[in-house]
Amino acid sequence: MDEGLSRAVREAFVRLYRKGLVYRGRYIINWCPRCRTALSDLEVAYEETKGALYYIRYPELSGRRSVVVVTTRPETMLGDTAVAVHPKDERYAGRTGATLRLPLMNRPIPLLADEMVDPAFGTGAVKITPAHDPNDFEVARRHELPSVQVIDDSGVMTKEAGRFSGMDRFRCREAVVEALRAENLLEREEPHLHNVGNCYRCRTVVEPMESIQWFVKTAPLAEPAIRAVRSGETRIVPGNWERTYFDWMENIRDWCVSRQIWWGHRIPAFHCDGCGHTMVETDRPDRCSSCGSGEVREEEDVLDTWFSSSLWPFSTMGWPDATEDLERYYPTSALVTGFDILFFWVARMMMMGIEFTGKAPFRDVVIHALVRDAKGEKMSKTRGNVIDPLELMERYGTDAFRFTLLAMAVQGRDIRMADDRLEGYRNFMNKIWQAGRFVRMHVDGNTSRALPADLPDVDRWILSRLTRAVDGIRKGIEEYRYNDAASAFYQFTWHEFCDWYLEMIKPSLLQESDPAARESQRAVLLHVFETLLALGHPFIPYITEEIWHLLPGERRSLLARSYPEADPAAAEVDVEERMGRLMEIVRAVRNIRSELNVPPAKKVEIRLKGRAEEMRFVRAHEEILLRLARAGRVAYKDPEYIPVQDATAVVNDIEVCIPLAGLIDFGQEAQRLRKEIDKASAELSVVGAKLANEKFVENAPPDIVEAHHERRTGLEEKIAKLSKNLELVSRYLA
Fold first, then answer.
1. pLDDT band of 186, cuts 50, 70, 90
2. Architecture of domain 3-25+211-368
């Protein structure tokens, strides 16, 4: 154990004890019979389990009547010390105070009234087993009932269980039911779904057990932690988690912090074997402060690991000493964590931080998604669906793995980790690497770092898009919407920089006739790519750092560079709109080629019809259009031109026409389209039949049903598009 942190733990425990916020007492705790240790309420994982409701007759000693009690745990009835009903339950009016005979044990127990009982559950009568149920423990306190422990710390029945002594608790349940049935005391048994608590470590069913443990009084600590969030001193992002935080903190129970395990921070308590006095001190006392005896024994229990973890924000900074680090770094700006430890860790850090420093430990608490498997199941060793991140990093690369998590981390949603997403982002890393190779081919140590004043539209467009990307990425990071930041980076890098800008500038980078224009182009290329690497560095640090140092010139680490800021002066809406229309024309031609199966090697003729101003801009960039659309020529038509046997598309107010004569074999294309329509129609019939089947819709997993709906919509759209193309091709066959 780190001595500094051990000292902080001891100091915190002692201070809480001296304020009356730590106590040692007998109470019902959650006990794991396998781990042989106490568990806090948060360490119990509840699972819906198929069980049974047992209706058991408890006869009155008078022999005239009986009370039917309902329970899910008949094995614990051996430790019953009463039966309780609600005081206003008319079914038991005048009967409270009667003495009942405990079945199988023949022990007299009272029938009493207590408001804890829910009269709507079962028969309205419940058995009271103080040693094995927290609610029953409280009832026993109110009515001064004895407590009988019938299950020991290993889950085996004690000698108090009589003839069932030595049985495993679950075998005992079966034996008790058999015995009740034999004595005609089991009225009936019904199937019942209920939540059963399991140990979060080993999944063993937890046993509520009466025990002496150490507790922290949490209600006084929770109040200032609640105020910190309500006042805005600490913000929980997304905001919907604040309600969950308040619900838990406002209904908080005392925290059992002692554990019966070998490893952990020892509780700084010391017991005198002479007089039984307990001392809580940071250092071991030589003698008992009460009787002076030297027979002082250190507490054997250790602290819950979350106790020391709750001190982490300030104990790591040197607390309880007033260190320079503590003054400088506490409180910190943000904690990023999963919602599954919001209460285990975050709430407790809030309570302890305010208690010991007077300040909430964080400005923002950012709750991220949980990573699940491809089916949306929580990963567990039992299911065998645990994904090893080291294996994924080895297979796809660390940056691809990091970027996948960021891109899928939508606030409020869990991440479904699937190989296809990882493969896609591995391809993205390859795209960036290839872009780096391209840039290095065209820039050198003499490339200017200063951007020329007079730039062509293509460069003005990429600089405008760059500043918008910077703005979007920074906004996503600042608002903890990392998926938005990752999406903005991906969109700009792949689709705008690689797919469009690099393709548009290739000729100008190679031209020898205008060296000044070529150098200007290289300066813009280097500036944009360097900024791109800096933008991506927080997400994909390894590949960006590697490429950065491969670029020409002496370079410090990207970590030492300020993060890019948006340049409002570079944003040009008009240039973006004009270049956007040019790219839409290219897309329209590409779509026509693809849908009509035009061979890639065949160059098409593009006929454009639109306003004169638009046509002038296209003429000025005709070389880009010809090359990217694989066209042989561009014809600018008068407004009166009517396309007869052209494939057409409309881009804003520009009509794009592609004459099809000589491009394709219309007979073969019509045959291909009919086959595609038949194939899609057959699949649509199968999908439609499934969705028309009520049993399928009711019983299939929701994600499967949703996938079928999406598939049906996609097939309908595909058939409509194929039918439109068939109609166009059929004109040539008429």
1. very high
2. 3-Layer(aba) Sandwich (3.40)
Using a 10 angstrom Cβ sphere, with 0-12 exposed, 13-18 middle and 19 or more buried, the burial of residue 706 is: exposed
Token digits for 551?
């670029």
Beta strands 362-368 and 332-338: pairing type?
Answer: parallel
Under a CB-based contact definition with an 8 Å cutoff, are residues 301 and 337 in contact?
no
Cα 52 to chain centroid distance, Å, stands at 34
Cα–Cα distance, 231 to 695 (Å, whole number):
51
Q: Which amino acid is at 86?
A: H
Q: What number is the average pLDDT over the span 117-140? A: 93
**CA dist., res. 164 & res. 182, Å (int):** 15
CATH for 44-202 is 3.90.740.10
Give pLDDT, residue 454.
Answer: 87
C-alpha distances in Å from residue 613, one per residue of 349, 610, 654: 64, 8, 11
- Give SS3 for 16: helix
pTM for the model: 0.71
Give the CA count within 13 Å in the CB-facing half-sphere of 459. Answer: 20
Task: Evaluate whether 293 touches 323 at the Cβ level (below 8 Å).
Answer: no
Q: How far apart are CA 227 and CA 359, in angstroms?
A: 11
Check residue 564 and report its DSSP letter.
Answer: P
> What does the DSSP 8-state code read for residue 205?
B
- 18: alpha, beta or left? (left if phi > 0; alpha if psi -120 to 50): alpha
**CATH fold of 666-733:** Helix Hairpins (1.10.287)
Residue whose token pair is 């598009």: 721
Q: How far is it, in rounded angstroms, from Cα 592 to Cα 733?
A: 19
Which has the minimum average pLDDT: 112-126, 170-184, 375-389, 519-533?
375-389
Mean pLDDT of the chain: 91
**Nearby residues of 640 by Cβ (< 8 Å), 6 or more positions away:** none
Q: What's the farthest any 2 CA atoms get from each other in the chain?
A: 116
Name the pLDDT band for 544 (thresholds 50, 70, 90). very high
- Options 1.20.120, 3.30.2320, 3.30.460, 2.60.40; CATH for 575-659 is 3.30.2320
d(CA 532, CA 66): 81
Could you give the C-alpha distances from 511 to 270, 450, 516, 525, 729, in angstroms and in order?
A: 85, 21, 10, 15, 41
605-617 residue pLDDT tens: 999 998 889 899 9
Q: Mutual orientation of helices 622-629 and 573-595 as an angle, nearest 10°?
A: 30
Q: What is the DSSP letter of 364?
A: E
Angle subtended at Cα 462 by Cα 461 and Cα 468, rounded to the nearest 5 degrees: 95
252-304 pLDDT, tens digit per residue, is 989 989 988 788 899 999 999 989 899 999 999 999 999 989 899 999 999 99
Residue 390 backbone dihedrals phi, psi, to 5 degrees: -65, -35
Strand 258-259 to 332-338 pairing:
unpaired
